[in-house]
Amino acid sequence: MKFVAFERKLQGTGASRRLRVAGKVPGIVFGAGEPTMIELDHNALFHALKKEAFHSSLLDMELNGTNTQVLLRDFQMHPYKPQVLHVDFQRVDGTTKITKKVPLHFIGEDVSPAVKTDHCTVTHVVTELLITCLAKELPEFIEVDLSNLTKGHSLHVNDIKLPAGIKVVTHGKPNPVIATPVEPKAEEIVVAAAPAADDKKGKKGKK
Q: Start and end of every Large ribosomal subunit protein bL25 beta domain (predicted)?
């Protein structure tokens, strides 16, 4: 994805406030040299932040006519308004090693034996993974195939086929669960009790 940024010469709280009033967002680009202060169009950035790829893939930033590859590292939103207050990017190249969360895309769930045969529902225990890799090898997402999932057996990190050069950071957990099938609950059948003989007689007597 590509976006356009403009160099920001004025700094400070007052300058940032005036930028926001003018429909701009202050930001910074760090890494591989001196930090660069930038500003972006608010509406363009706001809509870009709604796209998954903007958060988890390399971005082409055009600044002063030069294209630079960056990663979105952080952004701040207004507590209650739909307004982006600040954004941070990291400048990267082919040798930059990064650690970043990447979303998981689940496929094959509806044809798995757990769902199709045993009528289980599948719980996605995690929907993203923290990975380390070279910036140029960063995947937009990781595909998780659930087509072989069976009742009573969960899918773990070690079961996922990772792209070359990708390592998952598990923070000491040897093989975390990614998805697990949940068996359907047995339906309770409530049978209404037949009216007692005395009740029947009582109803007849009232007629």
A: 97-184
